[in-house]
Amino acid sequence: MSILEIRDLRVSVKLPGTGGQDELKPILDGVDLTLRSGETHAIMGPNGSGKSTLAYSLAGHPKYEITGGSVLLDGQDVLAMSVDERARAGLFLAMQYPVEVPGVSVANFLRTAKTAVDGQAPKLRTWTKELKDAMSLLQMDPAFAQRNVNEGFSGGEKKRHEIVQMELLRPKIAILDETDSGLDVDALRVVSEGVNRLRDTGDTGLLLITHYTRILRYVRPEFVHVFVAGKIVEEGGPELADHLEDAGYERFLTPSGL
To answer: In terms of CATH architecture, what is 3-99+169-252?
Structure first.
């Protein structure tokens, strides 16, 4: 079993300042969270609360500077790792806005990623079948394997491709940053089924970051965390997500509510 331990994490974003010097704007204000294999956690909160900052900070985005706290994955210091070292250690980020990678086919990209994570290249014959099967489960045309990564993909196709990556790489911890954003009902169902398949193996811990409860109707979390002003302000079970659907975040956004 794997465990991700976030303790008092404080993060600032780098902004262009006067005189060519970057200025730091504090975003995360002491985040504490523990996530284990087989668990599904949802982080919910209004726009601008720092949810995506948490995701990108865990992945190692250079725009964000860690100013305090610690992040351990199975006892290893994640914050001391480079971006690729974090991926090899078992961290996976499904981005809200997946980027295009011109000149690199989906098939080559995924096989290279799998080789980096496993330390050896998968056998081509079995890998081709695994890739085809994974794409079929996500209802992706196999022809997409020969297209450049995300180039010309619709929003739904990009999100399906992210889940194909996740299913093939089998990370210890998967962070899904607003994976439901821009998906129609059918695409949301297909993507959620892919997330559930990985969760049901019991080998991966899931951290779902979202504004709404749409995806939580398909991927039911055991733990829900309300994120406001860069920190977790309330925690509970799936019933908390249902309450937020009805009541919103208003009570957390006033001094008396916090």
So the answer is: 3-Layer(aba) Sandwich (3.40)
